[in-house]
Design a protein that fits this description.
This protein is of the alpha+beta class. The chain folds into three domains: 249 residues, Beta-Lactamase (2-Layer Sandwich), CATH 3.30.450.20; 102 residues, PAS domain (Beta-Lactamase, 2-Layer Sandwich), CATH 3.30.450; 166 residues, Histidine kinase-like ATPase, C-terminal domain (Heat Shock Protein 90). Helix content is 50%, strand content 21%. It has 16 helices and 22 strands. Strands 1, 2, 3, 4, 5 and 6 form a six-stranded antiparallel sheet that branches. A five-stranded antiparallel sheet has the order 12-11-15-14-13. Strands 17-19-20-22-21 form a five-stranded mixed sheet. Helix 1 packs antiparallel against helix 2, helix 10 runs antiparallel to helix 11 and helix 13 runs antiparallel to helix 15. The longest helix has 84 residues. The protein is rod-shaped, with a radius of gyration of 75 Å. It starts with a helix and ends with a helix. Bound molecules: adenosine-5'-diphosphate.
């Protein structure tokens, strides 16, 4: 057999076993049921046969009683007959004796003494002298008795035929007792019975009460009957021959009782009730078992699911009872502390995973847990692994409740946070490094910006002082001539101071001192310096400022520096340009396109336009990169500072090629709207 075959065979066996498991109780129940149904039927049958048997016995008893009485009558009167024949009895005595006998046997209607020619010699009846005509049946009995020399009974006959005048019609039967003297027939004693009297006198009342009793002929025709207890039902019947010589008479009894019903008594009813109860309890049991099986299956599934879940957890779980004794630990917790569940379960503090140096902490925490005052949001503490290694954990404790909501202990979830701590430490170090390099970068930025920005005032101071020196060398010592140059130089020194302060503020990213600045004003104040730049390269300056411009909110010095940076670049770009093209144009106007789509207000745009060498594509790529310069002495941070400053003020810096050759640098600033800034 193949493996698959074995499996099929096994599955078949299992299936058959399961089928048997159900079939057997079902068969047993059916058996019990059929027995329970058969039992009442059997009881009924038994009752029927018992009643029948009882009837037969009673009938037999009655028949015996009748026969006994008849035999006794025969005996008594044969005695009398014998005495008559022998002539030893006087007629008076005979009468007295006969009357005594008749008194005891009320069923005998009449006693007659016939001689050998069937003539009545004497009779108990008053009308004895009248010679009655013997019925055929009676005559036949007489002949047979004479022939057989033994008592004979006649067939029943009606008294109507016997010549009885008046009175009710009776069925009669004669018993002939032949008397022989010396072997010679000398007559008969005839006992005349009324058959109805036999039934009435000889059948006891208790039997007549329960049965219809009849005397029937050979062909079952009723001759007489007694139905004191009612008409027979034909259920329990018996017929028995009376066995009288010469008379074919039968005693028939017919019980007035009905056949027993199937539910005659409480017993059968209770059996049926019990059967129904049994079926119901079996069905309830079956349903209960099925429910239990389903619940068990669901429970097993749940347990498997929970076990899988607990085993897959990386969080340690630890349950403790109200005394602090560990009642459960999950695999993750065991792995964490390096101890098996057996080593932990049922342990009371101090726990094997407590680090000796922190025992006090644990005990304090443990007391809080027992008192129920432990914080729910978790706490950090050090645990010790089995190898002595310490590791930080984060513990959350929550109450453990049973079905009825009563607290039975505490459930703690324990997180090994050593990895997290490592990451946090690494992060902190990284942050420190970043901060120090950021500080270095700021220092560098500060230094380079200052160096760059101070160039201009220094250059201006240099040219003013050089001018003053030139004047003095040419012999001019007039203080009135020297004073303006020295004042300008002084102003530039102060300006340098301002530059240093605002650059410092800017680099520190502190909020600069902003104020509403008018572009006209601003350009006016730096124009001398722009002219100074332009003079050296023989560049002409054209200025156009649209009227009615709004002010901008800015740090004045920083904004001046932006403008000076852009004009210096423009002048330097035109150094090699033919003299006719060396024109620096500064235009201030309102932008046609609003700076911010959301605000309907237009920006103030300042364009610095030159006709210099322009910007080559490779230069354009790095234009705003720090320290990028195409100039021999350039620092390459001017444009970078300009853009940062403008962005800091909420503005932008762009450039474009000048259609007439050269470059246009254009910066835009949002207008100062007092109502908005308030
Ligand atoms: P620097 O002027 O010190 O070189 P900038 O950042 O001010 O530094 O300028 C960077 C470079 O941009 C310059 O070296 C120059 O090549 C180019 N540049 C700036 N302005 C102009 C201009 N108006 N026309 C042509 N090139 C310019």
């Amino acid at each position: 057999m193949t493996i698959a075959g074995f499996k099929d065979f096994g599955a078949g066996l299992l299936h058959r076993k399961q089928a048997w498991r159900w079939l057997l109780p079902v068969l047993l129940v059916l058996l019990v049921l059929s027995i329970l149904l058969w039992l009442p039927w059997q009881v009924q049958q038994m009752e029927v046969s018992e009643r029948q048997e009882q009837l037969i016995a009673d009938t037999l008893w009655v028949e015996q009683a009748i026969r006994f009485q008849l035999s006794r009558n025969e005996e008594n009167f044969r005695q009398v007959g014998t005495e008559i024949a022998s002539g030893t009895i006087s007629p008076d005595k005979l009468r007295a004796r006969t009357l005594l006998l008749l008194k005891n046997s009320s069923e005998i209607r009449r006693v007659m003494w016939l001689d050998s020619s069937d003539t009545i010699v004497a009779s108990s009846d008053l009308r004895a002298n009248t010679q009655p005509r013997l019925s055929d049946a009676s005559a036949q009995a007489s002949a047979t008795a004479r022939k057989l020399k033994s008592p004979q009974y006649s067939q029943p006959f009606s008294n109507a035929g016997a010549g009885a005048a008046g009175g009710p019609e009776l069925m009669l039967m004669d018993c002939y007792l032949p008397i022989f003297q010396n072997g010679q027939y000398s007559g008969s004693v005839v006992l005349r019975y009324a058959l109805q009297d036999i039934l009435d006198a000889m059948v006891p009342w208790w039997f007549a009460q329960d049965n219809e009793i009849a005397l029937t002929s050979n062909d079952d025709a009723v001759v007489v009957k007694r139905a004191a207890g009612g008409i027979g039902r034909g259920v329990y019947m018996h017929r028995r021959a009376l066995d009288l010589p010469g008379a074919a008479l039968y005693l028939r009894t017919n019980s007035v009782k009905n056949a027993p019903t199937l539910l005659p008594n409480l017993l059968v009813g209770s059996i049926i009730l019990l059967s129904l109860g049994l079926i119901w309890s079996l069905w309830a049991l079956w349903r209960d078992i099925n429910r239990r099986l389903a619940a068990e299956g669901a429970l097993r599934e749940q347990v498997a699911f929970r076990t899988a879940m607990e085993n897959s957890l990386v969080t340690g779980l630890r349950a403790r009872d109200l005394k602090g004794r560990i009642s459960y630990v999950n695999p993750a917790f065991c792995q964490m502390v390096g101890l098996s569940a057996d080593q932990l379960v049922n342990k009371l503090p101090p726990m094997p995973y407590w680090a000796p140096e922190a025992i006090e902490d644990y005990e304090e925490r443990f007391a809080q847990v027992l008192a129920g005052t432990v914080q729910r949001h978790g706490f950090e503490i050090m645990f010790q692994r089995a190898n002595g290694e310490r590791f930080p954990v984060l513990i959350y404790e929550s109450p453990l409740l049973d079905d009825s909501g009563r607290q039975t202990g505490w459930m703690g979830s324990i997180l090994d946070i050593s990895d997290r701590k490592k990451v946090e430490e690494l992060n902190r170090q990284q942050q420190e490094k970043l901060q120090s390099s950021a500080r270095l970068a700021t220092m560098g930025e500060l230094a380079s910006t200052l160096a760059h920005e101070l160039n201009q005032p220094l250059a201006a101071i240099s040219s003013y002082t050089a001018g003053a020196i030139n004047l003095m060398q040419s012999g001019v010592v007039d203080a009135a001539l020297l004073k303006p140059a020295l004042e300008k130089a002084n102003a530039q020194v102060q300006r340098a101071g301002l530059i240093i302060r605002s650059v410092h503020e800017f680099v520190k990213r502190r909020e600069p001192t902003r104020e509403p600045v008018s572009l006209q004003n601003l350009i006016d104040s730096v124009m001398p310096l722009i002219e100074l730049q332009a003079q050296q390269s023989l560049v002409a300056i054209q200025l156009s400022i649209a009227p009615g411009l709004p002010e901008v909110l800015a740090d004045r010095v920083m904004l001046e520096q932006v403008l000076l940076n852009l004009t210096r670049n423009a002048v330097e770009a035109m150094q090699q340009a033919p003299s006719g093209r060396r024109i620096l144009r500064i235009a201030v106007a309102l932008d046609s396109v609003p700076f911010e789509a959301a605000s309907a207000t237009a920006n103030v745009v300042v364009s610095v336009i030159d006709q210099g060498h322009g910007i080559a594509p490779e230069v354009a790529e790095n234009l705003f990169s720090p320290f990028f310069s195409t100039k021999a002495e350039g620092m390459g941070i001017g444009l970078k500072i300009c853009r940062t400053t403008l962005e800091f003020h909420g503005g932008t810096l762009h450039y474009a090629n000048n259609p007439q050759g050269g470059t246009i640098f254009r910066f835009a600033l949002p207008p100062y709207l007092p109502q908005l800034s308030e």
